[in-house]
Input
Amino acid sequence: MTSIILRRLATSVLILLAVSVLVFVATLLLPGDPAQAILGQQATPERLAALREQMNLNDPAWQRYLSWLGGLLTGDFGVSAASGGPVADLLGERIAASLVLLTAASIISIPAGLLVGTYSALRHGHTGDHVVTGTSLVLAALPEFVIGIALVTLFSTTVFPILPSVTMAPPGEAVWNYPLQLVLPVMTLVLMVTPYIARMMRATMLEVLDSGYVEMARLKGVPERQVILRHALPHALSPVAQVVAIQLAWMAGGVVVVEFLFRYPGIGQALVDAVANRDVQVVQALSILVAAVYIVVNLLADAVGILTNPKLRTGGAR
Amino acid sequence: MSVIDSPQIIAREVETPPGLFRRLIRQRQAKVGIGLAAAVVLLALLGPLLLPWATGYTSTEFAGRPFQPDGMLGTDNLGRDVLSRFLGGGLRLLMYAALATLLGMALGVLVGMTAAYRGGRVDGIIMRSNDVLLALPQLVFALLAITVLGPQGWVLVTVIGITHAPRIARVTRSATVNVITEDFIRAAEMYAVPKWKILVQDVLPNITGPLMVELGLRMTYSIGAVASLSFLGLGMQPPTADWGLMINENRIALVVQPWGVLLPVLAIAVLTVGTNLITDSLARAAANSNTGASK
Output
């Protein structure tokens, strides 16, 4: 079992490496070069040449890739073309701010999704089930900003003007000191991912409830509560772990839109600004970061899958 | 499933198994979805033709000062007529989303079928490269491309299409794997039918169910992706009239001029909910056909 997990780990590292190559190659396609981007159009040829020398831009691409990769591993993310400062300084606080958002959203949406899905499966074919399926179908279709703007209109501007629609922490103060401002962004993320988790949970739960061992437990006279909690639920969970992982990773992309909408000072906002300024170093660093989060989350989901499903524990699974 | 069909109906269905489209259209949910999506598509297609006849303005013309109650729905942040911009702003979103979806389908189906049919090392290489592409969320991938190549139309279409492809390839591959072990494929191989012909004539018609579901799903996501990028100010560029961009431009004035935000939000919401309802019904219709697909 450890060997399977180790092999999975090795694949993940390889995938991350391949992603880093992809991200690096993208910058080679950029018209002009970073030196030009930092100094601007009016730069003298001498200064350009000096900066190119300083940034090692005259080295062959593979050498630059290796030094860039080495920098990433040691926490040196390069220099931002827009601000001139190190990328790491720019992103530190923002990463923390985004993590707050993502963690809060996961803590709410995962149990909510599991609960709603289970409820829906237990009420299969009844009104409650129809309401859940219908609502999740609608919510799953909506882009993040549509959900966000609907929430702003509902809770901030027109119907119940009770919550702030933008994040406005004074500079230097942490966002989590203003919990009221976190409500709408977190709610948007929760509404974005919960439907998917609930739908998957409902599907696997229905399948499990239909299985032989649940029927057996019921025939033996095991109380219904125990049938669901002890026999059905654990088996329904492991396929859901995959979907939860995909959703968490998707949230890392969706958070970009949500942060932009609520002017939340996280990595998403930073990414949008960097793209608008064509600040390649920052875009590179953030892409790698998001990819790393995605890969780690997926790895965890696979580990959960392997630990909970005996069939995957032995030999050539996957 | 909940209603037990009468013997006559069952007998009729056994005689002529209805096609995917017939099974789709039979569901009430599909009818609602088609109605919603068709309404928005019609609006987006006909909207530009109504200008400036219906409102008196083109979509980029200045109608007056910012945020005035001129015209039917007032003016936007630069004093352009909101209704005109709304009518003119759907077509490009739809076109880009449709093109991106088609590109993704073409790439994904091609790659997925090749991986399944060739098997072995080709399959391995293709599926591993898929994993690499899947490790970047769609939006982040798109942003990376836009940083390098700029926010042009073809960049949006291409990058969204390419990010769809690995997901479509996965579905295509697993559907194809189930088909290529069938006897009629072996028979075709024995007659030395060219491989591409087998894939097009024998495999493709047998995997239309999952592919149609995927088409619907990807269309929903394409609309969301194109609109989101424009909303971020990194998709369509001013002064283009576009629903996503309209939301970006007008959201600061949500209280003063709500129509500039709410109309496009509503249109995008109705459209994506419509396509998702169709997709869900398609998935059901395709799932029902699995029992009688071996013709």
